Amino acid sequence: MQGNKPFQKAGAVIVAAGTCWGLGISFVGNVHATRDPATRLAMLERHRGLWITGQFLAAAGTMAVPVGFVRFAQSVRPGPANGLAKTLAAAAAAALLAGAPLFVVALANRASDLERFAYRRGANWPFLTYSGLHIGGLAALGTGLLLLPLKPWTGITAAASAPVFAAILAGTKDIPPFAFYLVETAVGVQLMRYEEPPAPAEDNTDTLPRR
Prior knowledge:
It contains eight helices and no strands. The protein has helices spanning 8-26, 37-46, 48-75, 83-112, 114-118, 125-146, 152-172, 178-193. The radius of gyration is 21 Å and the shape is elongated.
């Protein structure tokens, strides 16, 4: 029941979107581990149709993940106890929403210009901006999750991943995006499983008639 599992739908969207992203990015997946540009290009040209389909799936997942976190932010009940958590969840969703189109553009470029992707040509700032926004979103998300009655590892994983990812990005100017979606999918699974504790029964003893 949605009443007992307030974040179930949000978690389901996140998990489905993360799975879609992972499936798409895995099409011709070994191209990402291939160092030689000419070999990468040859692989992409051999599997052009599969590669393009994969980029479309990855783009769909990229845009859908933030939608799940928007739904999560909306599902956090307002109130003194949850006010900061709701604000942080909304900030995380906003960061992911802002960054997603940048990666979608990168995916579109990958699909339309195989040679440019194979030889790593083109501006890198859209990807760096997308990654920075994603890392900021994970930091806000993790902090917000720690303020909610979820299992602590959920928030700790998201919050702790942010500085690790930031260090990798700062040191290499690159980071595999699957790291982001792996963390977010794990969070989505926990959101799906979370059940609110039952409300305490009201004590009506004072209203009983006295003999």
